[in-house]
Amino acid sequence: xxxxxxxxxxxxxxxxxxxxxxxxxxxxxxxxxxxxxxxxxxxxxxxxxxxxxxxxxxxxxxxxxxxxxxxxxxxxxxxxxxxxxxxxxxxxxxxxxxxxxxxxxxxxxxxxxxxxxxxxxxxxxxxxxxxxxxxxxxxxxxxxxxxxxxxxxxxxxxxxxxxxxxxxxxxxxxxxxxxxxxxxxxxxxxxxxxxxxxxxxxxxxxxxxxxxxxxxxxxxxxxxxxxxxxxxxxxxxxxxxxxxxxxxxxxxxxxxxxxxxxxxxxxxxxxxxxxxxxxxxxxxxxxxxxxxxxxxxxxxxxxxxxxxxxxxxxxxxxxxxxxxxxxxxxxxxxxxxxxxxxxxxxxxxxxxxxxxxxxxxxxxxxxxxxxxxxxxxxxxxxxxxxxxxxxxxxxxxxxxxxxxxxxxxxxxxxxxxxxxxxx
Length: 423
Ligand code: IMP
Hints:
Elements: E1 3-8, H1 16-24, E2 29-32, E3 41-45, E4 48-52, E5 65-68, E6 73-74, H2 76-88, E7 97-100, E8 104-105, H3 108-119, H4 133-141, H5 154-169, H6 177-190, E9 195-196, H7 198-207, E10 212-215, H8 239-244, E11 255-261, E12 264-266, H9 278-288, E13 300-302, E14 304-305, H10 306-316, E15 320-324, E16 334-343, E17 346-348, H11 356-361, E18 363-370, H12 387-400, E19 404-408, E20 416-418
Parallel strand pairs: 1-10, 1-11, 2-5, 2-10, 5-7, 6-8, 7-9, 11-15, 14-16, 15-19
Antiparallel strand pairs: 3-4, 12-13, 16-17, 16-18, 19-20
The protein binds inosinic acid.
């Protein structure tokens, strides 16, 4: 099967965008299957970093078709702005981007609800991206959501909004329904050619042996079922999300590449067992440029967590790992890897606790590795790496018992060591 799923191993921001971009050089189609504008991928295009929030990173390869699957929640306004931005940078989007008719739409009121919930006294503070993701998925599962296909006719959209506000939120008077309906039908009309039945399109293309990349947003530990609940997003970045978010059956997923940084990061609230000690974290964050692509928030940084990554391997049936940002560890004297969690004084070797209370109490058990001084940014040949850098990622292979097929040493496509043929 000519299909590859690219999945984040921990809390997102693993550098999936670059890996997708790399693979899409030889892919026919790249598909996003969950999430919305909460995601942020910065891809270097002609030397310029371009942040994408909704459009799959494959858009920078002119032969690749990009699909936003039914599992996504789409902010149509910002999607449209993203299309205009890409076009202004000389990227041809029309005819190469398709949006699922079944995808749900995030409206400004979802964003408002998201902000209100986060700010409400006594509410759980999750540190969301304020993009309306939770409220939009809530509506989807409460069966009051509005899908792209429902917006093709203005009257139909207006009627749905009427019923939404009167029966669900009870806040009908606060919103100008006619105005929202008019605004959004205009955008949908602008996007007319982009909107298709992506389920039949994708299955037809896969059956025709086309190369397809499934691109996750966020990561396994932000998955609403398997992540560090409630400090998670509201969708399934994990492997099952590929099927429900695209309509492609599990036996059509050929290979799963798990993307993990050579260290760990986390944005937002929630337990993070391997977080660096204070004095070390700030300078590291600056050097590694660990700030959110969507919100600009500083990311919390920590050591590689082999327990979290191992758990994620199991859930996703990972075939091999893409290890990113190895260059950011240059100059670190001793590099630690968390190989077990100590919970209540006992080593819980491979188990990842299902509750945040236990995870907050865990004490990481570390193995230490000698670092290297050399700047390895841009190295694309394994033999040119310092001995300790090779030792480090080979030790990760041993600990995780999995092949690292790609090592990334910088943001550019060419800053990559390809250790195994992917296609
Ligand atoms: P939401 O997805 O905006 O509802 O946010 C829920 C949690 O997921 C928060 O902790 C966010 O910081 C986190 N999150 C959402 N999207 C991303 C992402 O693309 N990278 C990293 N964290 C994310």
